[in-house]
User: What shape does this take?
Amino acid sequence: MPKKAKPKRKLKTYQTSLGFYDQAIAAPSMKAALDAWGARSNLFHQGAAKETDDPDIVAATMEKPGVVLRRPVGSDGAFTEHSGLPTDLADDEATPKRKAKSKAKSKPKEIPSKAAKQPSRKLDDQQARKAAAAFEKEERRRNAERRKEEAARAKERARRDKAVASAQAALDGARREHESRSEAIEAERAALDQRAEAEQSRWDKQRMKLTEAVRRARE
Assistant: This one.
């Protein structure tokens, strides 16, 4: 029987804020979104990420499934693959906080209607399959880049380990040579000391004998 094709996973749009950017991505699961963002913790459990049905954000992410789109944090602009930094960054962090608080007070909360929550453009099955295939392609590309980076790091570690081993071997060899030479010098010093003692003993005997001969000759 022919092997059945693996069913494409339905994509959803997820959104978070990291650093200077709001980030959005079309992914089949929260885990896939976290992997794409490079998050080290579960942002969804922390309340820092969510699934969104904003029609503009959904449309933008579905055009580039699996690609992390950005916009300056706190803005309501369009999500793009390459976004600039926020233009209203201030040296005093308290200033934007006060402005945001004042703005929040002056503008009443709008209760979204059911119609507003629904995307204006619904994806049909063909578009959904196309988006899912594009996501899987982007995911494969990202995984390939990750494997390439890991291989490069492993190669660098191997090179560094080899260099360390070579330097350590040279140090060990030099230490052994030094110890061997020191032992030879010590052996030579011991032999010289022995010869010096023997010479001193010979001279003492000869001196005593000759001194006695001189004394007898004077008598």
Observations:
- The mean pLDDT is 80.
- The helical segments are 30-37, 55-63, 94-106, 114-117, 125-218.
- The first helix runs from residue 30 to 37.
